[in-house]
Amino acid sequence: MSDSLLQRVPEDASTVLVQSPAIEGVTPVCTGLSGWSERVLLVGYAGSNVEALRTRLAEGDADPPPVRELDVGTDVEPGDLTGLGIAIAESLGPDTAVCFDSLTAMLQYADRERSFQFLHALGERCAAAGATAHYHLDPEAADETTLSALSTLVDAVIDTEAGTVSVRPELTEKD
Question: Would you say residue 64 lies in a domain?
């Protein structure tokens, strides 16, 4: 299922929201999105899938992209979105994929408004650096208002349970 979902994400989608239950393995989708890049930055909160993602990236590729990890809770305080933004910005460069696992955890430390502002700024930083970002979110852990608000910040939304991909209209009009 993940290969067909990935095929529906436009190549010029620089930000993608991956909605998937936390228990479900989303590594195939994440690996596909990260594998398009030359470098990967895995941003993980405690209990995230960072190690599984690192392993999966290395498995299928004879020459996997270099991976840097940013451990929220060790490298930066969980509620310090300013510090987190600075740490991510320092690792950005052309053709870098930021894998953010997970918005579900971030929303436990920061309210929707602060999280929205953080992700808006992060999306702009990624675009300016020529990087891409995808964010993982358990839709069961967020209310409809939060899901709707965060969806406005990205170019595409992948819903792994429904098997759907929603793309920002500006990207589909180019085709």
Answer: yes
What CA–CA distance (Å, rounded) separates 115 from 120? 8
For 93-140, what is each residue's pLDDT tens digit? Answer: 999 999 998 899 999 999 999 999 999 999 999 999 999 999 999 999
Its domain, for residue 74, covers 12-169
Q: Residue 130's pLDDT is what?
A: 94
Handedness of CA 142, 147, 150, 155 (dihedral sign): positive
* CATH for 110: 3.40.50.300
Is the residue at 4 inside a domain?
no
> Distance between CA 172 and CA 174 in Å, rounded?
5
3-state secondary structure of 100: strand
Residue whose C-alpha is closest to residue 96's, from 65, 71, 73: 65
How many structural domains are present in the chain? Answer: 1
**pTM of the model as a whole:** 0.90
Q: 66 with 39: CB under 8 angstroms?
A: yes
